[in-house]
Structures
1.
Amino acid sequence: MDTLLFHPLIVHFPIALAVLVPLLSGGVLLSWRAGLLPRRAWWLAAVLQAMLIASSYLASETGEHEEELVESVVPEAALEAHEEAAELFTWATLAPLPLMVLAGIVRREGIGQGVAASSLLASLAVLWLGHSVGEAGGALVYTHGAAAAYTQPAAPAPQHGDDDDDD
């Protein structure tokens, strides 16, 4: 294969981050409420959410770029189900970030922690959507054989001239 295809390499980052964001957010929020961590620790959650947004966008773009290759191997309905789930997931990753930023800048601790809790709930919804994307993507690979699009050798180039193979 002459070119490196990025979608299979990239797709695991947003799924992993979709799991990590609520875990980290929940841990930081509990520690913040207990007085074990200062408010500024909350920015870790916001940075991780920003990374999730960027990686989901990149995964979506690489998927769009490689769609034609996989179309030749899998049923169109399965590919569309994955694509629609991915699009919803990518848009949904945007929702928690403004809440996370607001939680970090609100002066009143109780209000900031309440907004942080809201962003945690939003990140759990994103995780659920990420599961749907992963499930649809897994079906493409394991049920419909999408990996064959990446593993099938390219057709040999037509030979011109003599047919001997003594190279």
Note: The chain has a mean pLDDT of 88.
2.
Amino acid sequence: MPAKSQDLHGNVPDKAKVALLLIDVISDFEVEDSEELFKNTLPIARNLSILKERAKKERVPVIYVNDNFGKWRSDFKKLPEHCLKDDVRGRPIVELLLPDDEDYFVLKPKHSGFFSTTPDVLLTYLQVNTLILTGITTDICVLFTANDAYMRDYNLCVLKDCVASVKLEENEHALKHIKRVLKADTRLSNEIDFNAFN
């Protein structure tokens, strides 16, 4: 039997009590209702960019969980390339949130970041017990991911200034539901102290 791997090749710490998930932020925003969604996402992308930078300084793993948009032959690298090279609405957001070499990514086929995907293996290895969920849309993919994380007994933070939906009232309703039913912390991103999770 082979020896258990002692590290993840220096990319992330061997143990991390918290991980930051960015859900569906790499998008061209060329879908139905995309103009309204883009307008609501741009401000949270700025907040998320600052949060991600803080997370990196604290060696908190950053995991992009992104829709494959039904393109089963796609890979994650093609998504940002498309958004940066082609004339698409989502370019400013992707420029703010561009993944780097140390980030992890998961392509998801459905709404939840846990459905038919692989983050469980990484999160278990790291011994993560708290997930900070950010991204779009709060009332669909963030909600479904939060629900599945809750069912797996993760503590949840869904930061209200780092999530967006097409309609502001749908966003507020989803946040209230996530806080009440899934027991998530919905504070502002500048109130997060990553060291408090260790």
Note: The two ends are 32 Å apart (CA to CA).
3.
Amino acid sequence: MLFGINVVYLLILVAVSFGFVFGVRALQKTVLAELSRTLYVEKDAERYALMLNSRLLFLVLRRGTVALLRLDGALFSGSADAVWEACAIPDNIKLRPEERLNWYQKALSFAVMSGDGRRAEDYLARIERLLEKETDESLKAIRAEARQLYGVYIQKDTSLIEKLEEEAAGCGDARLGLLLYRLAKLYHFTGDDAKAVSLLKKAALHLRNSPWLDTAERALSDTSVLEAE
């Protein structure tokens, strides 16, 4: 009888534990959705910062997650000072490997878009070290994308043209728009603006509903935009 009662209590405890875990996960999704809506839909960076400063947030989200959310807020502001301040990972925050990779990717992207070659090289090296022994195809693709970003935006390496053209030939719509835009940049660097404009027109068709569309359209009117963006 006693054994039966213990089993019942154990089953109740397991059920409560599972319920708690699922409840926390549901709450996390709700909180993350609200933060995303506040920053990207309402564009209310002040309220977003206040939400992140709430101590109650740490009852739901990991410190590493909150740190990444702070970085998102800094990136949204576009302020280089705010971004690099947010990129200084505090020693007391432990990041999971996927969080660290996400962090490095965002930092690299901001560095190359702002033409900061020193920081771009640093974050590319961090990604290379983190993924050095990875054999997973999706992670290898992330490493290749990081190298491509650095090669196009920082090194302005026109020798990449053939490789990007080969990739574009078998690429889907969303990725194709970015590849065509990068090819336009590289052709601009060779001095062939006629080819660059032709590629920009094609890129714009594949960048509808994308934040890159505005940049591509401005570059169509003034190819010097390709120098910096």
Note: Residues 1-22 have pLDDT under 50 and may be disordered.
4.
Amino acid sequence: MTAEAVLLVGHGGVPKDAPRELVTELKQLEKARRGTAEPPSAREVELDRTLREWPRNERNDPYRAGLLRAAEALGARVAPVEVGVAFNEFCAPSIQDAIDRFVAHGVKRVRVISVMVTPGGNHSEIDIPEELAAARTRHPGISIDYLWPVDLDLLADFFARLLEQPSGDGSNPGS
């Protein structure tokens, strides 16, 4: 592994075959704790782990599969830099776990990119920076850079390139 890595962070989705009552219970526990200084309860931690570690495949979690394909495509463009993925919620690995894995393999600099690119989202503006602050505390010798917010002109250029594509019907999500 190289001394530098890129971490793509996605939202994370609930697998289609996971029991909805688990998600409901987790969200209720998170909501009750929000705004307090209390750490997550043992039950909240258990539910989070259960959902994050739920067996995944392309059919029950197409979002995860898509982010993995995007990371693979990015990896081909930035090699030899290692590219990994992490998820804000519902899916493993968490941001903490992904950074811990990089550090364990000798990475000294992690550049973090959220695929949630527009301003105004709690995950990109609050959750991810909090997770990265915790990771910096745990790994003080590691440079962790958050490449957000995305320059809106750069984003507009990306959207303009999408408009140049021959099909906009979603029939070719893999390329």
Note: The mean pLDDT is 94.
